[in-house]
Structures are given as structure tokens and as C-alpha cells.
Amino acid sequence: MEEVGKQENLATDELPKRKTNLGKEVFENVAPLSVDIGGSFTKIVYWRPPNPPELPDYIIKEFQDTKEAGTFPLIPDPSLKIHLAEDGRTDGTLKFLKMPTGKAHDFIQFLRKTKVHQSWGLRKTDEVNATGGGAYKYADEVKAKLDITLKQRDEMRCLIRGLNFLLLNVENAAFTYDTKLDRQVFTSGAESLEKDAKFPFPYLLVNVGSGVSILKVESEDSFERISGSSLGGGTFWGLCKLLTDLKSFDEVKEMTLHGDNKNVDLLVGDIYGSDYSSMGLNAEVIASSIGKVATTRTDIKPDYKREDIVKSLLFMMSNNIAQIAYLNAKLYNVERIFFSGGFMQQNEYVWGRFSYAVAFWSQGKMQANFLRHNSYLGALGALLTDLSKS
Quick one: residue 371, left, alpha or beta (phi over 0 = left, psi -120 to 50 = alpha)? Predict the structure, then answer.
């Protein structure tokens, strides 16, 4: 494993484990981009050839300085770009963009005006692979204004296809989180393959969106949904809005940095006065989430702020989901667990809590794994859909 303090250190990736002709396949067979149109964000994966044509300055300006452009926030993720290589030669680059789905109409107008989606590729872009609910919602508008057909692709299949591609081809695509050092520890796929020829299969993918879906992945072509939960990211956000006056998820994330769950959670130490050693429970273990607020004991007087409530809710959701994931891994005899979804996005406290919970329930035998390209699995899988047999 390689420890890296900042993700930006891994801005350039190669495909070292298997030969790929992906750039050529994309160039000749499909549109050079795909989209995953979710409820909050639209994610775009596009292929840029080795020697791309020059684009007009106003297009570059739209991509680089969206504030000055004043139309919509098109946010590039340069640290996630993937350089494709074939026989030592560059075969183009996969790049990643996202924008608020609420700006989809503006983006369609931008494409209609600039025709940037026609700037490279052997043929006219008349079909684009798309996944997510917006692939259906915006299909008629895209067809009418851009003369492009959105080819709707199954969301879960795209998710798995994108993840398998990354795990099998891209170094440092996954990482664990060291809770003691508070840092990401990137996993070398090449080293994992040397140790286990079947890597990464089988594994569980726990996708935490508004709710939770748990999929068991046996191979590149075989997977099934084995479990899930209605308690997910949407539940966390809903409870935060009900119990505090917070208006945005950014405010919630900020609160998780400062809150102290001990002010609202009832701990083992609150009940026993110390560790419950015979059961292997230390005094800091949560016995009842938000339980301190409900207690009638005179020796415990809750004194809490809204950030304490948010931190408690975060721990409650993370512990619950991680336990369900561990129990399914145990039930189906799977050792690897990958977590994905909007709830996981760039949140060190979430990574840390899931890592702690999986280690706790498995008694240190399993680790929680997270993904650098977490937001883009569906869009990447959609791009690869017509190339899966190749």
C-alpha cells in the first residue's frame, strides 16, 4: 500500500495491469462522452484524444472560468483524469466534469451554441449513453435542441461496470482510511493482483445514496442485489433538517467538523461508569444514539448544541450502514467491501466512521474501502457499455 496525504499527488494515472485499446474504441465506435444525470449533480465523463483539435477561446473560458462566464458552474476534477496508454503510446485521456443538475437547461443551451460535443470523434455525435433519472427526464429536450438521442442505460449495471474497470485497470483507484493518522491509504491494484489472482472478486458494493443498496459482485459480468436499507443519506439529511435549523448540506458538513456526539449520545461509560470489560466494550462505545437527551437520570444533564446533534446523527447512520454491510459480507462469505454514493463524497469524517465501524464489527478482520472516482462510476460505466465485449 502507498500512503498519500493529499489526493492531488495522484493526478495522473496510467493503466498498468492490462492492455487497453479504449481510446481507439471510443474514437471509432461511440460518442466521446457519457452522462450520469442524478437528482443533485450531473456527472460527465469524456474522452480527449492524444492530439485534440484546437477549441475556440470562448469554449475554454467556459470550462475554466465559470464565474466570469456567468452561465453555470461546470466543475472539472483534474485530479481524477486517467491517461490511457497502449504499447507505450498515449491513447488519449479520460476526463471528468460535474455540474448541478438544476443547471441542465443552461448546459444544453451551451452545447447548442458551442457544438463542443462535436469537436472530436470520427462521426457525428447523434447518440450519447446516459444513466440516472435525468436520462429519461431530459431525453426529449436533448433530442429537440441538440438532435442527440440519450440512450438510457441501466443504473446499477453502469455502476458495476465503471467500478470493475477502475479496479482492474487503474492504479490507486481505491483507498482505505487510517483513523489514527487521519489520512487516506491508497491501495495498489497491481500488488493486490500479485497476492490474489481473483482480485477484486468477489466483493460487496454498498451504494449509499438517499437509501442504501448492497450488491454482491462475483465477476465482471455477474452481480446481484442482496440487501439494502431505507436508512441512508436522505435519512441523515432529513433528520438534520427536522432537528436543526440548517438549510444546506454544506452547513451540515461544516457542523460535523465541530460537534461532539458525547453531549447527546448515551455511552457505555454513562451506564457502567467505566469499560464493560467482560463484553469487550470500552467506555466510549455508543450504547444509545441520542439516548442522553431522553434519560431521566438526575446525574446526567444533557447540554448540547445543534452541531452535537449533527455529529450524533452522522455516527448513527454510519454505524448502522456499516453493520448491515459487515453482516452481509459475513453471510455471503465476502471479505472486500467498497462503499460508494453521494454520502461518501469527500467527507473524511464519514470515511473515518465507516472504517471504525467495519473494523469494530469484524474485530479487525475487514476494512472499509472507498473510491477516488466515487461520483463518476455510473457515467464511466455508461461510456464503456458499448465496449464491454471489446
Answer: beta
Residue among 10, 83, 26 nearest 50 (CA): 83
CB 107 within 8 A of CB 122: no
Q: Determine how many CB atoms are found less than 10 A away from the CB of residue 81.
A: 15
Cα–Cα distance measured from residue 325 to residue 335, given in angstroms and rounded to the nearest whole number: 11
Q: Residue 31: its pLDDT value, please?
A: 59
CA distance 309 to 272: 23
- Please state, in angstroms and rounded to a whole number, the distance separating the CA atoms of residues 332 and 351: 24
- 63-76 exposure pattern, b = at least 16 Cβ within 10 A, e = fewer: eeebeeeeebebee
Say how many residues make up the chain: 390
C-alpha cell at 314: 452522522
In contact, 216 and 334? CB cutoff 8 Å: yes
Residue 358, amino acid: V
pTM for this prediction = 0.83
What is the block-wise mean pLDDT of the chain (390 residues), using blocks of 10 residues?
34 44 54 82 82 56 46 63 68 82 81 69 73 93 90 93 90 92 85 83 94 94 94 91 86 86 93 91 92 82 89 94 97 96 84 94 94 92 72
Alpha carbon distance 100, 74 (integer Å) = 8
pLDDT score, position 55: 54
Beta-strand relationship, 127-131 and 149-152 = parallel
Which residue, 79, 62, 72, 82, is CA-closest to 42? 72
Q: Residue 54 is which amino acid?
A: E
Cα–Cα distance between 288 and 302 in angstroms, integer?
Answer: 14
* CA dist., res. 185 & res. 2, Å (int): 6
**Rounded to 5°, angle at Cα 248 from 244 and 249:** 95
d(CA 191, CA 342) in angstroms, rounded, equals: 29
Q: Which residues pair with 34 in a beta bridge?
A: 45
Q: Which residues pair with 174 in a beta bridge?
A: 187, 371
